[in-house]
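Run log, item B.
One chain of 270 residues. Sequence copied directly from the ordering sheet:
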Amino acid sequence: MIDPTVFCDRYGPWALVTGAAEGLGAEFARQLADRGLNLVLVDRQPDPLREVAQELEHTTAAQVRTVVTDLAQRDFLLRIEQTTADLEVGLVISCAAVSPLGPLLDLDLESQLAALRSNCEAPLSLAHAYGRAMRRRRRGGILLVSSLSALQGTPLVATYAATKAFNLVLAESLWAELREHDVHVLAVLPGPTATPGYWASEPRTDGLAARLVMSSGDVVTDALDALGGSPTRVSGPWNRLSAFVLGRLLPRRLAVSFIAGQMRRLYPHR
């Protein structure tokens, strides 16, 4: 782990975290507060977001501001920029995501378009808005939460997987563009993670995928420690092995077929 003082100097004094009301976003907020950063927490769920903010204000020295907004709405960026107008945001964590579950053609189109706006347009907008100031200051960081599903077609979450592939390529591209300006960019690729959203999808609790479920704390610690290194980080050794086998050893057709089988076993009711 990077020394908290060094981390704060590198990425502080304020961090902006989307999807901060629960799961990975809330865990990013907790660990960033422990590392000395103040926080702007963004989510569309007002009550859980307020609870996380109050928890951090009571248990850490962090200053906390909240923004209640839906990233699928066109005015989301204006709301966030108004809240941060007087702040120096040195780190952006794009964690919020929409994940429609089921065969794509059985789902309504609007849910797919909302996922596209939340998962692609929002992180792009945030990186553009705050990355310019970071580039000018020659310090800062942008962390986009992608997914193992970004590495190949993933049935039952087709749109989600495609949006996460967008985040992966966007982060890698920004990593190369901003590296010379001392701004660090990372795409983190978690596999199954024990978050409220994951359990709400009602996955089977046996089989290979169930055995690979990671804790939010482990995913976030690994991601923050990896910031400033390579452009991507797959969370956990078993997920890294899986990504290597599927991406390097198997033909694309077999990789997609294998993932399809795993998804159908994980969600047999879909």
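Observations after the first pass:
- Residues 140 and 231 are 15 Å apart (CA to CA).
- The beta strands are 14-18, 38-43, 64-68, 89-94, 141-145, 184-189, 232-234.
Flagged for discussion on Thursday.
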